[in-house]
Amino acid sequence: MNAQHAFSDAERDTIYQLIALRRDTRHFQPGATVDEAAMQRMLRAAHQAPSVGLMEPWLFIRLRDPALREQVLPLVAAERDATAQALGERAAEFLRLKVEGLRECAEVLAVVLAPDDGTVFGRRSMPREMAICSAACAVQNLWLAARAENLGLGWVSMFDPAALGALLRLPPGAMPLGLLCLGPVAQFYASPMLEQQGWRKAHLTDHPDAPLCRDNHWQD
Amino acid sequence: MNAQHAFSDAERDTIYQLIALRRDTRHFQPGATVDEAAMQRMLRAAHQAPSVGLMEPWLFIRLRDPALREQVLPLVAAERDATAQALGERAAEFLRLKVEGLRECAEVLAVVLAPDDGTVFGRRSMPREMAICSAACAVQNLWLAARAENLGLGWVSMFDPAALGALLRLPPGAMPLGLLCLGPVAQFYASPMLEQQGWRKAHLTDHPDAPLCRDNHWQD
Description:
Chain A is an alpha+beta fold and about 220 residues long. In chain A, about 40% of the residues lie in helices and about 15% in strands. Chain A has a single domain (about 30-185), classed as NADH Oxidase (3-Layer(aba) Sandwich). Chain A has 7 helices and 5 strands, in the order ααβααβαβαβαβ.
């Protein structure tokens, strides 16, 4: 691969199209599978993410065992109930939303923040934040790779991290950041599902009049 | 844009090429500029990132004022010194590394974690982690967009967030996560710069024999 490759306008447009079409997915084709070569390509892309000081503080765990996938469900259900309670007057509306596709998706990957390896470079003043940022970049690579493979991916963060960590036998200091539902879909959402279901409007994304940045200071 | 677009194998390969070629960049062409239309496309791509509960907890600040860009330099220099001290026996080796391109790059963007808006959906149990993950995904989109525009981007996290927050007049609860150096480069790194300079080897990225994931549990 040529590191100096100049992307053409057409290639650039493909990349912007990909970024625009990536969606947080909760509807999958039950019984479908992910091609193993595609899985390896997507995971490789995840590991090509940037990381602070090259610490690569992420680990992916593939939930292959159907019994283990079953054991995840009550953890997510419990957090969904706790979320409904915390939401108060929007609880009933919330409980009508589909918040995950764990049963139907072809594959479930847990993304785990690894125990701190003591890296100082680039994170002396923000150690935890920077490690989390690196792990999130790996997920975003995987997410974009999934859409490039014409697959859906949904990031489920509705769980108690300690309980999920125990289930996945994580070592002390590791923390699960997400359960990634991955697989073929019947169709891709044209806009964020939470918008389609009337839960919330994104105020920045895909709104041509929203300011894209501020100049010099938060407020002038 | 057709939400159901099926990416071709050639398009998919372009995307994987992009992900593989993105680098954390510290060498820029002094005096160069970024095309304004490209800047708007890149920022739009950043805002198309996923976010927990659609909270979009990021804000980008473009440091247009040359005086303000000058004021950032001593903050980064101070943190570089503190890092060297914290590194102990590798201090001298560290101080020989180029850790940022703030003077030479065409544009500097600060990425800021916005004050918590109270979003509960998807983050009741991990509120701060999930907001940070969302902001990091926005940066990763911007980073990939920059490489697609044949520009370099470097994420500088070597600063005291409180001091930088004061300089950028951030409101209470907001936190700068990075200074993003952006602009044309003479050439792109063929491998991570910290590897090229002998600081550290990435143990996962681009190493064909590294395990890409574990099955079912951290350790079986």
